[in-house]
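Exercise 3.2. Students should predict the tertiary structure of the chain below and write it as structure tokens, then compare their answer with the key that follows.

Predict this chain's 3D structure.
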Amino acid sequence: PSVLGSLYTINSIVIFCDNIVIDGLVVNAGHTPTDCIIISDNQNNVIKNCIVTNTTLSGIVSTTAKTNYLINDIISNCSGDGASIGNGFIIYNLTVTNCGGFAIDNSEHPTIVNTICQNHPNYDFHNSLNLTNCISQDSTGNIQADLVFVSGEDFHLAANNSSAIGTASVLTND
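Answer key:
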């Protein structure tokens, strides 16, 4: 598989192949009209430890129903949806904040575990029924809480988040 490391910052990426791993990439669209990451009709792609930010459209977009993974990513400051994805996605430890559409919009029901969504005018989890330990400001997550982050772009939970700290699932067997 291909791997891009944390030394790179780009404004968008389109994946047209199977089995691509993107690890530690910052995708900053600089408020341009582009989706930051687009996954075409492919499978077994992994987007992990990435920051996706500052687009006038959506952060991550895919209409495929094939299995793809989002792991330990941050999506913020998108005018559109944070992630607009299909059924096959498996999402672990995603933070989505300050997007203009839905935090996570999906036409199907991907697996979403240990995910935080906050500060969206529409639903945090739209059409999401397969949630485990997912926190939202509205009632669409299975844990409802208003969160405080350490600072504006530091999305670690502040120490006073008693409703959120300690609620995640252990993922060692996943």
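Discussion points: The radius of gyration is 15 Å. DSSP finds no helices and 23 strands in the chain.
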